[in-house]
Structure to design on (210 residues):
């Protein structure tokens, strides 16, 4: 029991740290001279479609699952997965790695970040930093975080939650890429040929080494 409480405490610290960092850079990306109205945010959600609404619904569910886990990590025996201790420490390391990676992505994006799937007239294709190899590195960061969460918590409900998010992420990526092609046409299609969605393209990495 003491060991589970220790890992739960590690998860809380790393989870809070991750979202403090993300929240800080999200706020920095907003234009204080042109704050978005509630109607504009709703319109962005409407344009995105079902993926946006599902994300809104999943957020409180994740918080509830985390509260239940932290309140008593082994309150229901069948929720505890038989994950070895070394993998649980690996999960902690993965979450820690996701924090500087999130900083890198946000600093590269700057004001081009948007929580909703939308494009603007002043928008451009970001190809610097992590975007030189991966088109959606912020999703890569979240996948790394979720993998770390699975290992560290060894909690079945949180594991199921993380796995359910995988098809949602890919559905959202497809919608985002359609919007980017509509906005930038062949320029974005060429960028897609040079980069991977979540992971770098091995062929491109090998060709650049030659």
């Amino acid at each position: 029991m003491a060991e589970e409480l220790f890992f739960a405490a590690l998860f809380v610290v790393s989870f809070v740290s991750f979202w403090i960092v993300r929240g800080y850079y999200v706020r920095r990306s907003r234009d204080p001279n042109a704050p978005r109205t509630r109607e504009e945010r709703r319109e962005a959600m409407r344009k995105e479609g079902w993926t946006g609404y599902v994300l809104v619904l999943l957020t409180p569910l994740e918080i509830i699952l985390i509260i239940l886990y932290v309140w008593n990590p082994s309150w229901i025996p069948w929720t505890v997965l038989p994950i070895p201790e070394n993998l649980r420490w690996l999960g902690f390391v993965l979450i820690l790695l996701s924090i500087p990676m999130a900083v890198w992505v946000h600093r590269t994006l700057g004001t081009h970040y948007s929580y909703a799937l939308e494009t603007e007239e002043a928008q451009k294709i970001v190809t610097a930093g992590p975007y030189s190899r991966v088109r959606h590195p912020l999703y890569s960061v979240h996948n790394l975080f979720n993998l770390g969460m699975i290992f560290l918590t060894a909690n079945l409900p949180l594991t199921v939650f993380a796995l359910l998010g995988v098809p949602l992420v890919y559905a959202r990526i497809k919608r985002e890429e359609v919007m980017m092609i509509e906005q930038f046409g062949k320029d974005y299609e060429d960028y897609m040929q040079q980069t991977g969605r979540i992971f770098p393209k091995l062929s491109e990495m090998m060709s650049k080494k030659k």
